[in-house]
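Possible regression after last week's pipeline update?

I re-ran a chain I had predicted before the update to compare outputs. Posting the input and the new output here so someone can diff against the archived version. Not blocking, just want to make sure nothing changed silently.
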Amino acid sequence: MLNARADNALATELALKAHCAFNLSKLTLRVAFAR
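New output (post-update):
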């Protein structure tokens, strides 16, 4: 039970990091094309 919860938290954290990285790359592309 505890292990599954830890895995779930890790997956959530990874998803959050991936989401942030995706948004950051989108923002970088937007800035690059805006120049």
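Follow-up from reviewer: compared with the archived run. The chain has one domain: 1-35. Marking as no regression found.
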